[in-house]
Amino acid sequence: MVLPKALEELIDEFKKFPGVGRKTAERYALFTINKLNDEDIHQFTSALISAKTKIIKCPTCGHLTDEDLCSICKNKNRDQSIILVVEKPTDVFSIEKSGEYKGLYHVLNGVISPMDGLGPDDINLASLWTRVINESVKEIIIATSSTPEGETTALYIKRIVQDMDILVSRIGYGMPVGLNLEYADDLTLSKAIENRKKL
Ligand SMILES: [Zn+2]
């Protein structure tokens, strides 16, 4: 069975999203055609364009923002002496949702992965060094995942700052190896931060 070209193209667009296979893409495409009216389509396309044009990476921490600095870096009530290092913006969402952590963040937007040809210069580390030199940072908590790449990244950070007067700790993973922060519940996350261990 051959589908109309325009429908096939829409399915192909949805298939570009992570976790969306052919079947799901077909469902999304048919939903778009059958259930969304012109107003919905207009809102959807303008939200896509608006997010893509307005959202930037915070120049300080690498988190997503639509302002000059992200809301966390701007918030002077947060503990400026602790930086929690995570792999991606969604990790910040997960930890913020647990509501316990009151320090700052640094989003690497990746991990060091020699297998994939990703070295220290390919992730957001340069601005972390600027922060630890310029700011009143006393502790760095590393919350990269417990995969070999996450561990390599953690040890690299430890090695760079080891001669500075900064405590480097690793989030207490009572979590299975490779588990993503985003799948941990709020209590587990709070405990993981509380149970951090000196690296
Ligand atoms: Zn920021």
Could you walk me through the main structural features you see in this protein, from its secondary elements to its overall organization?
There is one protein chain. The chain is an alpha/beta fold. The protein contains eight helices and seven strands. The chain has helices spanning 5-14, 22-35, 38-54, 71-74, 89-98, 126-134, 148-161, 186-194, and strands at 56-57, 64-65, 79-86, 103-107, 139-142, 167-170, 197-198. The strands form two sheets. A five-stranded mixed β-sheet has the order 4-3-5-6-7. Strand 1 and strand 2 form a beta hairpin. Helix 1 (5-14) crosses helix 2 (22-35) and helix 5 (89-98) packs across helix 8 (186-194). The longest helix has 17 residues, at 38-54. The radius of gyration is 20 Å and the shape is elongated. The mean pLDDT is 91. Zinc ion binds next to helix 4. Zinc ion binds at residues 58, 60-61, 63, 69-70, 72-73.
Annotation keywords:
alpha/beta; two-stranded antiparallel sheet; 14% strand; 199 residues; binds zinc ion
Describe the protein's topology:
Blueprint (H helix, E strand, L loop, with lengths): L4 H10 L7 H14 L2 H17 L1 E2 L6 E2 L5 H4 L4 E8 L2 H10 L4 E5 L18 H9 L4 E4 L5 H14 L5 E4 L15 H9 L2 E2 L1
Parallel strand pairs: 3-4, 3-5, 5-6
Antiparallel strand pairs: 1-2, 6-7
